[in-house]
Amino acid sequence: xxxxxxxxxxxxxxxxxxxxxxxxxxxxxxxxxxxxxxxxxxxxxxxxxxxxxxxxxxxxxxxxxxxxxxxxxxxxxxxxxxxxxxxxxxxxxxxxxxxxxxxxxxxxxxxxxxxxxxxxxxxxxxxxxxxxxxxxxxxxxxxxxxxxxxxxxxxxxxxxxxxxxxxxxxxxxxxxxxxxxxxxxxxxxxxxxxxxxxxxxxxxxxxxxxxxxxxxxxxxxxxxxxxxxxxxxxxxxxxxxxxxxxxxxxxxxxxxxxxxxxxxxxxxx
Amino acid sequence: xxxxxxxxxxxxxxxxxxxxxxxxxxxxxxxxxxxxxxxxxxxxxxxxxxxxxxxxxxxxxxxxxxxxxxxxxxxxxxxxxxxxxxxxxxxxxxxxxxxxxxxxxxxxxxxxxxxxxxxxxxxxxxxxxxxxxxxxxxxxxxxxxxxxxxxxxxxxxxxxxxxxxxxxxxxxxxxxxxxxxxxxxxxxxxxxxxxxxxxxxxxxxxxxxxxxxxxxxxxxxxxxxxxxxxxxxxxxxxxxxxxxxxxxxxxxxxxxxxxxxxxxxxxxxxxxxxxxxxxxxxxxxxxxxxxxxxxxxxxxxxxxxxxxxxxxxxxxxxxxxxxxxxxxxxxxxxxxxxxxxxxxxxxxxxxxxxxxxxxxxxxxxx
Lengths: 269, 366
Fold this sequence. Notes:
The structure holds two protein chains of two kinds. Chain A has helices at about 5-10, 10-35, 50-60, 60-95, 100-105, 115-130, 135-160, 165-170, 175-205, 205-210, 220-230, 235-255, 260-265. By secondary structure, chain A is an all-alpha fold. Chain A is globular and about 70 Å long. Chain B has eight helices and 18 strands. The longest helix of chain B has 18 residues, at about 195-210.
């Protein structure tokens, strides 16, 4: 069975393999250089050692920035879901006038360049209202995640039978009860995938974080970028490898618990 | 039906059908009642001033073509949409504005609407949990209800693993488990294949008989309604066209719409005004050359001359189509349905005499 697509579609499978090669091979280079025993970021690595990992996890700017990044990503994800789920419900189940406009508004961060958003937030919130950079970043990242929170949970909701909620009501559930016992469980894969995508989007974000950084609060990608500009040693590669490993762990957990087909299809039939 | 009373045809005078000895001659308090109920969506009137009484312990069908307002009526009864005008009484209480969760009714949706994240048993237990039925009793009732619908062995399965017919039974069990005052079924059989649909008719009647529930069933299938109903309500364009037992309604449709919907054909205008109709199986077509011996048989009956336009062999029967001119001078298309074992002596182009005995004619108002 698994060989069928290959034999039937030689062009498509060749392209797919090529795509994987283009995406994965550079990553392998980074991972390999992280284990070098030498002092510079070169390939092939000179000897084998874990010392750059040791340096990376004890390098205070990195560990501090990692905590900051995780805090920011977690809070922004929660905030985005807290806003996004009710908005999705309103769009799909409510009698909202101009709902396509509302939906468009919440999807717009996908289109507006992040540099423009960052600059606008910098001007308005930090200069205009004198907000410090953490709340500004939080607002910026949350806005950036809105499309995922609204679109991905919306996909689950659009596929769910509206009669399910009516059935729950008919059996004696109040609207709130029906939401928590029927609607929310139906949305769970959608919410999970929205959270995952949001978290990754925030954690990896450079443009917004770059524009809105200051000395007290820096995210990990920005800190790593700064570091690379100053010194060209394998510690950055080691840090990148650690992040990669963590991402793989998250992906495996997601696949084992919910399944990618469900997560990214948003389907729970 | 608690006792399988034979389908004795009630007198077509419109009197109440013969009651079981337990019930008095006067009709019992309705299980549910609609008084002057209308439902208007924008400039579309889905239900137009409907008065309806649902008799307790009976199976009432709301029958009509799509868009006749039957589902809207059911949804108003269930509480999913509030009527624009009018009053809805359930068990004698005004429940016009009561939300569905406070009505205590059981509803089976056309799509079944089973909770996909819950097992069959959990689906059935859902309403009982909300009613805070103690766990031991809850389990007993779930088991008992699943046995009633013949699905005890599938309690632990997820709904998506079940066939359409099984899902339908789960939906039924879930609605029955809460011991509803009314069981509402919205086109429950329309998603099943033909053979299963016929089986489930009897199954639903059996369950209704065993539980003694008052059932309201929406359908667009006249055979289903005739077979299952104690009481049938024919609807068209948001209005009730006729209500009565199948034995009352079928031989005496109140108007052209009802007659048409129940499979009457051969609508013949009378010179005195009005229309008569006769079912295809009661229309006799004979070659015009045959001497008409039994003239007395058609006294007060129908007799027209016409020409055969089509003869269709259908296995068990034969459909003969004739074009004739009625008393008002209008051309009418007549269809005769003959139980046939072989070929017809008639063929297109033949001149024929079409007759129907007086007892088979139904007069319709215009």
